[in-house]
Model the fold of this input.
Amino acid sequence: MSAQVPASLVIEGLSHRYRNAPRRALSDVTLRVEPGERLGLLGPNGAGKSTLMRLVCGYLPISAAKNTRVQVGGLDVQTHSVQVRGQVGYMPEHVPLYYELRAREHLLFRARIKRVPRAQRAREVARVAELTAITHVLDSPIGQLSRGYRQRVGLADALLGSPPLVVLDEPTVGLDPNQVRDVRAMLRDLGGVQTLMFSSHILAEVEMLCDRVVILSEGTVVADETIETATTASEVHLGVDGDAEAAARVVALAAKALSTELVARPGVGGDTDYRIDVSEAGVPPAQVLRALGAAAQEASVALLGLRAGTTRLEERFAEVTGGRRPQLDSNDSAEPDDGHAEDSAEAAEETG
Done:
């Protein structure tokens, strides 16, 4: 019997407070990300998204606490910091790049820091350059590249060495619509091969790319659900081949089977269309749909339609964060984001 593959990321009871900050940036965060999963991290400005990513990647120290545990691939981030960094590809919101270097030189240097074997570095740089469509600018100084291409270089950096966990903070910021589409396609292809955790203020992007979404508000997790659950409205739609009396018979039979109350209200499709608010019934939409289908058969009423309503992720976001919509330029921390400090720290670990 083969050993069970450890979760890509396990977080239990994680809290963090910046010096002199009036409140915690994170408070008792607990979540788990399985191998190959694509997790979207959402929240208003100051919710703690960037802080959470920095802690996971070892960029910020984790406060020692009895019930706190942060593991990447089964390795504890606090006690195996160097090994964990080898398991994570991290791209912060403000990408740290050496503008005086050519893109190829920067990536070769970063491949060395990440301990990619010397004989494989050139081939690995070529691989990630092709993935991020920067092959034609590899010999250009980074300082001369557009913001969009600098963003791509940072993304290529995060993918060097095929880390099992890829953590991206606002990966499409600064890209034009065509570049955004290309990056989305690339991130979609990572699913099932590498675990992806990324934050974005473009909710449609998260909805398209992710299996699951975690929403933070004021440092706490206020929602942790599959995309399907997060975008399923709290109502179902019933279409019957008959009048209001026929619909009422179906709804009454379904309510009896579920031991709850169901109220059908007119929908937008005329006399044959009805909507039922399942939040009032306290029963999951899927269970209500099954009951309505069985009730229609029992009542000998032909169905013209039966489906769960859908909602936009933006509506779910507003619901769990108290109506605060996501805004651009999210910087959770009370401290400056000096991206080059990360490079210096990693270089010191390798030489030390």
User: Anything to note?
Assistant: The radius of gyration is 24 Å. The first strand starts at residue 9 and ends at 16. Residues 232-310 form a domain with the Alpha-Beta Plaits fold (CATH 3.30.70.2470). The longest helix spans residues 244-258.
